[in-house]
Amino acid sequence: MKIAIMGTGYVGLVSGTCFAEFGHQVTCIDVDTEKIRALQSGSVPIYEPGLQPMIAKNAEAGRLAFSTALEPAVGEADVIFIAVGTPASRRGDGYADLTYVFEAARQIAPLLRGYTVVVNKSTVPVGTARQVARVIAEANPEADFDVASNPEFLREGAAIGDFMRPDRVVIGTDNARAEEMLKAIYRPLYLIETPFVLTTIETAELIKYAANAFLATKISFINEMANLCEEVGADVHAVAKGMGLDGRIGPKFLHPGPGYGGSCFPKDTRALLRIAQEHGVACRIVEAVTEVNAAQKARMVRKIRNALGGSEAGKVIAVLGLAFKPETDDMREAPSLTILPALMEHGATIRAHDPQAMKEAARHLPEITYCSSPYEACRGADAVVLMTEWNEYRALDLVRIKELLRTPVFIDLRNVYEPKHMAELGFYYEGVGRPIRP
Ligand code: NAD
């Protein structure tokens, strides 16, 4: 199968590489010449574990190519995936910005040769795939094509594993031929049976938003329970375990923290609310989820302030982790981007470390000091805030940290450490939703 991918970001690059790994012939296309030049010369523009060697292997085998030119890949392709970004619109009204999707559709339209399936992999509002079909048909009335929706569920940081062993593959199309071609692309995934969800275009488009909104709901739910735990003296870890062992609830996504971030949950919950509003349907739970998330970040600022004795003015805060989660350098809507400016606004100085995201973070937060190690960040600080649970922060030399800090205040927004142990070491320690032992 010959595949062209429009958009070589987290999703396009991982999907393209994995399709090549299955044995398909793949060309990843992007308008970003720097990104494509880097990939052509063997360097990978994003941090994603396991991706670099897989790209190198498939590029060497001649199955994976990178280009800024649409031809000849688009004309030769049996299937074209659109995997461009769909950020929140700049108007700030929550709508997904579909400029890049329609631009990609307009670009491929005149180049289609023979029967082609055009697949939306980007997360897009219900109705977008049909609009893409209209854009292509208007630009090229001769084109022989069908559209499909194939939303992507991979997680950054675990993207290869998620793509190669997905819980399900959702394929939305009205056309049997298109469906067969997509099934054929994914068939190498499973030897016995691939868990396909074969459905209509509109349903497939909505599945992605519903799934992300539900996961965001679990996070906001446990964050509210954590806040309640802090007031009643309960331990949210035990609450989450006690809930999660119930098979109807499940243990995943019941970990409290500073609020969700990243390139998907914030924008997708907001986009779902706009879709619902446009159709006159109330989605009050999702509405509350977004509000709770914003409040959680504000609560973290207050938590840090209180631990510093009521004011962050003139204080130095060491921050461990800046990315929205471990194993990625993605800073999009990371909680650190809200929490740290709020602290700096009131006179705090930030010394931060992140294993991978410092270069990206510096573009958004140029005023903070970036340090070469977590220990360097802690040197002379009035408190340390663990913001992202990278593996290298899970077994810190705590005795050394305590010696480096001016005052032994440890705010653990990911509940990596045990309150009792931290108290024994002489820290003033606060997690999220766990008993405080000063
Ligand atoms: P990204 O910003 O990392 O990559 C998008 C790429 O598309 C960029 O490199 C950009 O230069 C390129 N592009 C824009 N217009 C183009 C055009 N006309 N032709 C060719 N390339 C073009 O975005 P991403 O994180 O990969 O997300 C892509 C889509 O997948 C979004 O809709 C997102 O919501 C969805 N998604 C993302 C994730 C994730 O974890 N990142 C997971 C599932 C779904």
Key attributes of the depicted protein:
14 strands; six-stranded parallel beta sheet; 17 helices; Rossmann fold; 438 residues; binds nicotinamide-adenine-dinucleotide; 13% strand; 2 domains
What does this structure look like?
The protein is of the alpha/beta class. The protein is globular, with a radius of gyration of 23 Å. The protein has a six-stranded parallel sheet with strand order 3-2-1-4-5-6, with helices on both faces. Strands 11-10-9-12-13-14 form a six-stranded parallel sheet. Strands 7-8 form a two-stranded parallel sheet. α13 links the parallel β9 (316-320) and β10 (349-353). Helix content is 43%, strand content 13%. It has helices at residues 10-22, 33-40, 51-60, 73-76, 99-108, 128-139, 159-164, 176-186, 201-232, 236-244, 265-278, 284-307, 336-345, 358-364, 374-378, 398-404, 419-424, and strands spanning 2-6, 25-29, 64-67, 79-82, 116-120, 145-149, 169-172, 196-199, 316-320, 349-353, 369-370, 383-386, 409-412, 428-430. α5 packs parallel to α6, α9 (201-232) packs across α11 and α12 (284-307) crosses α13. The protein folds into two domains: 2-199, NAD(P)-binding Rossmann-like Domain (Rossmann fold, 3-Layer(aba) Sandwich), CATH 3.40.50; 227-430, Rossmann fold, CATH 3.40.50.720. It has 17 helices and 14 strands. The longest helix has 32 residues, at 201-232. The chain binds nicotinamide-adenine-dinucleotide. Nicotinamide-adenine-dinucleotide (NAD) binds next to α1 and α5. Belongs to the UDP-glucose/GDP-mannose dehydrogenase family.
